[in-house]
Amino acid sequence: MSMAGVVIDGRYRADTGCAALADRRGDSLVATAPPAERWLLIESRVAWPRDALAALRPEGLGAEVARLCRQLGYRPALIRRYGRLDRTAPRRFALADCRPGRESVRWGDLPSDEHLLPVLRGDAEPGLVSREPVYLVCTHGRHDACCAVRGRPVAAALAGAYPERTWECSHVGGDRFAANVVVLPQGLFYGHVPVARAVELAKHHDEGRVVPDLLRGSGAFVAPVQAAQHFARAAGHSRLVDELRPRAVRGLAGHHWQVDLALPDDAGLVTVEVSAHLDTIDARLTCAGTAPATVRRFQLHSITSS
Fold it and tell me: Is the pTM of this model over 0.85?
């Protein structure tokens, strides 16, 4: 199946897919990263079904892995290398922690899918810590064709520059924002990443900086914090990956929040007040979705420093 012309049920066209339409509408990326404090990455060498964990064997294992992940707070994802498959090398798994102050990625060998159960239950070694960042590019075409059409060229670009850091992955959420890239262990979600900027994004991360115009937010933080960080950066505050950490989140009436973010070098706090609004749009949010649909939008009310 050619990614340049994916067809689903004879109807899919890249220029009218959910990602292309969202791009043209100018859908906001702000605070759209889904919750993902921890990840379980599972290297898979079989074709991914729409429900990714259904690929695990024996049958029924995927449901048990999903149950344990929900219980333990992991987001599971299948991964594979772009354009190369070395069946002589052992498959791998990874446990990633994106929580502030605990950021880490641990890699281990995966002799069988069933090995995931003792790993999750704490009865097997969790793997060795790696200091290398991980770039996950969603290419899950059976979940949404836009993810494959837009994701695979981005995966190719990143794999060309960073072959050991880059993995294609299954669904990460936000199909209309394809190409979606997740950077671990910080849990940064980027959306609408064009091929021409994929390596730029990775270089900025190596320098410890985010790319604000492509950033959806960090899955380690709730949406109001993601929004507050966005507005603080837009106002000229730090763009460093590990700064503007939340110190307090206060819920106010009417879907308003006040978020205290720590300024660099113990220089105080920036307090951001935001509100969330639900908008109805005459559009589908996935290629298989229906219109109208509801989207959440964050609005800035104030920024003060103390």
Answer: yes
